[in-house]
Amino acid sequence: MPATAEQQGAAALLSKMREGLGARGRPNVATRWYAQRHDSTFLRAPWCDMRVTWAAYHSGTYDAVCFGTDFAWTVAHATAFERRGRWTYGTDGIRAGDVIFFDWQGGRHSIQRIDHVGVVEKVLQDGRVQTIEGNTSDALLRKVRTKATITGYGRPDWDRSTGIVTLQKGDSGPLVVALQKDLLKLGHELPQWGADGDFGDETVAAVKAFQQSAGSTGKKVDGVVGPKTRAALDKALKALKQ
Amino acid sequence: MTGDDAPNEGQAGERPFPGPEEELTQAEQLRQLTDTGTQSVDATEPDEEDVLRDLYGEPDEDGIYRGSDA
Is this prediction's ipTM beyond 0.90? Predict the structure, then answer.
């Protein structure tokens, strides 16, 4: 069964949130990117929401998560979810990939009192959530959070994800599994590792073989799955069904 | 409102939203940014390390729970 837009979008967003886990201090990859787009003052500004915006932008989920606006201020971001009917106070129904907002004074029922933001990675059996957050102790960390400090969450509009995420050697996770399954369907071989979720040399070779079979030559046979290779894969899969 | 790493700068109060985000300039967002104190220390769950260890295994030498997917 093909992955849903939510599964794909959440996996892509979380994959980018994990990138550089443990990175500490500022400027950092998110504040540099944000400052380049707007103002150098952002280089050393509080960066929890800049990290979410950065991850969304680089995972093909920017329109789903940010609705076309760069957010550094959490209140503005939560308000954007609320205005689109995608906001929930508390944690009822929360899922991996949701954008979660905190109020250190006690999770009050007020978007205007929000202090901090992260992305839900896992919903724990005891009702707590495990998150990934930028600017927690000025670092990018996995955290465990309880309802006591959670104001609510925004559900990204996953149907607005472009789904165009460049995959290449070194990547791993559900998107790589999906790619490997597509390659296998199209008759390309992954004899040693199969669809294991790791984009290693074997997957590079299979992608190159596909690119050649799709008519690419020279430097275009690079083993990287960008928008053009993705489009060619989709076209080939569609033809396979007919 | 934007993190929890700096010295506490006081109680966070109501922060009126100035208008639709489409009209919110980056300068206005920047003006609203303040590190919101050390409350994260209080907010951290006492068993956080145990939970993360169960989920992702032992932390690396920097104390980061990377698991196999990070």
Answer: no
